[in-house]
Specification:
alpha/beta, Purple Acid Phosphatase, chain A, domain 2, 11 helices, globular, nuclease, DNA_Repair-Maintenance_Comp, DNA recombination, Nuclease SbcCD subunit D
């Protein structure tokens, strides 16, 4: 059986205030063409279809159009909700869509109920595990703790229990949206830390033939059977070196995996350039970046006059300007966003305590209180989102 694994579309997202809807449409055109031309048997979308719980209308229309095109091809699509999606909104109409071969899996209660497909070698069970917010799903799944490893482990127990009752030789695929240990992160993924722990071990997926993962934006192979497709477009400059692609996965008669990367269209390359303003304006070696989306980091000891306007004359697609002097007090000019890049909510909160109380960082009890408060806020946000 031939599967096309993709994730993290983030429909409706922009790139440093530059709209990406045209680029996202081009990706979906490419996806549909790949499904048609490469004789795909099923499409797997591992979460974060939208960029936010209440997406803009244009993103919803683009999603609707993509579903119609996939349904017209007669190729089943299995799709789960991610941490950026509103599971309840994404799941509206799922029972009707199922009749057209679009299988939306947004309810944790359905983790152990697969989409069953067949090929010449027998059945393939595809299990969709939507993003599982620990505090919200612990009781429903019977997990021993409210953390990611426990709830995902409980969900996988239901998968393995269902699979055990299937005919011998049934092949199995799981879609999941999680941070699995060993994965490489980018700046554009939303922090999902709960209880101080964000990752789950790869061993949680033992017992299935293929795990199609979403959440991390870089395409990567954790094991031959556990892969991230990554996002189809770059959503931060930390992804400047990414090769954006989907996985074309052939699952053979005994469940062995043969995977091939299918490159995605690149709307515009990304470039990070660094140095004093005058060098960036004159250096001929940077000519290849003049049509790229550019993040320029200026290392001048003093802030130059009108640097954005001057750089934009050479790099018309300059979208980010950062000040990072090589030395001296001007280092404090680095933007607030730059200082927070790559830090979790917990780390930011602890840094704040240390900042307002010089000489006395948060102790173990205070760190636990901060962690509990962050988890409670996240649970309240998820509950409010679900009630809308």
């Amino acid at each position: 059986m031939r599967l096309l694994h993709t994730s993290d579309w983030h429909l409706g997202r922009s790139f440093h205030r530059v709209g990406l809807l045209t680029a996202q449409r081009a990706f979906l055109d490419h996806l549909v063409a790949t499904v048609r031309d490469r004789e795909i048997d099923a499409v797997l979308v591992a979460g974060d279809v939208y960029d936010r719980a209440v997406p803009p209308l244009a993103a919803v229309e683009l999603f609707d159009e993509a579903l119609h095109r996939l349904a017209d091809l007669g190729v089943p699509t299995v799709m789960i909700s991610g941490n950026h999606d509103s599971a309840r909104r994404l799941g509206v109409g799922s029972r009707l869509m199922e009749r057209a071969g679009i299988h939306l899996r947004t309810d944790p209660a359905g983790c152990g109920t697969p989409v069953l497909l067949h090929d010449a070698h027998g059945p393939v069970a595809l299990y969709g595990l939507p993003y599982l917010e620990p505090a919200m799903v612990r009781d429903a799944l019977g997990a021993p703790r409210a953390d990611h490893a426990a709830v995902l482990g409980a969900a996988m127990d239901t998968v393995r229990a269902d699979l055990a009752g299937r005919p011998p030789g049934t092949r199995s695929v799981v879609l999941a949206h999680a941070f699995v240990t060993g994965g490489a992160v980018s700046d554009s993924e939303r922090d999902i830390t709960v209880g101080g722990v964000a990752s789950v071990p790869a061993a949680v997926f033992d017992g299935v033939d293929y795990a199609a993962l979403g959440h991390l934006h870089g395409c990567q192979t954790l094991t031959e059977r556990i892969r991230y497709s990554g996002s189809p477009l770059a959503y931060s400059f930390s992804e400047a070196t990414h090769r954006k692609s989907m996985w074309l996965v052939d699952l053979d008669a005994d469940g062995a995996v043969h995977a091939e990367r299918v490159d995605c269209p690149v709307p515009r390359p990304l470039a990070r350039i660094r140095g004093p303003l005058e060098r960036l304006l004159d250096d001929p070696a940077l000519a290849g970046h003049e049509d790229s989306w550019v993040e320029a980091t200026l290392t001048d000891s003093a802030r130059p006059h009108e640097p954005m306007a001057r750089l934009a004359r050479r790099f018309p697609h300059l979208v980010s300007l950062v000040f990072d002097p090589d030395e001296g007090p001007a280092r404090s000019l680095a933007s607030y966003a730059q200082r927070l890049r790559g830090r979790s909510d917990q780390e930011i909160a602890e840094d704040f305590v240390a900042h307002v109380r010089p000489g006395r960082a948060a102790d173990a009890h205070e760190r636990a209180e901060l962690r509990s408060a962050i988890d409670e806020v996240r649970a309240q946000e998820m509950a409010a989102e679900g009630a809308r």
